[in-house]
Write a structure and sequence with these properties.
mainly alpha, 56% helix
């Protein structure tokens, strides 16, 4: 008979996310505390109730060190991307490069001769009017 079209369930991804988050071990109550420090800054502390979910504290870096590290990482990533893009470039042959350079040099010479003639003519005209 006829071919049946498969209908996509728009809620399929949503259901998959919900089912993966329904596990009991994934859900842990979170305790939170609010405190005001010496500088008057309000901070909110959160901790999980399970001892197994606690992570070891990482040493705190100064903002200057983390900022420098961030810029260094961004710079290295930029240079990697530049390298990848330069591999994609189609470089001209030696013959094409010489031809293009010759055309540019000839046009520069012609334009400079034209501008020299115009400059000479206008300066001569100004001398006649003033003098």
């Amino acid at each position: 008979m006829g071919l049946q079209q498969k209908r996509k369930d728009p809620n399929k991804k949503k259901k998959a996310r919900e089912s993966s988050s329904d596990h009991a071990e994934d859900k842990q109550p979170v305790k939170s505390a609010v405190s005001v420090g010496k500088s008057g800054v309000l901070s909110i502390l959160k901790s999980a109730s399970s001892d197994t979910s606690r992570k070891t504290a990482k040493p705190v870096k100064s903002q200057a060190e983390s900022g420098v590290r961030r810029y260094l990482d961004i710079s290295v990533q930029f240079l990697r991307e530049v390298r990848v893009e330069l591999k994609k470039v189609t470089w001209p042959s030696r013959k094409q490069t010489i031809g293009a350079t010759t055309v540019v040099l000839l046009l520069v010479i012609l334009v400079s001769i034209f501008l020299g003639i115009v400059d000479f003519g206008l300066s001569s005209l100004i001398r006649l009017v003033i003098g």
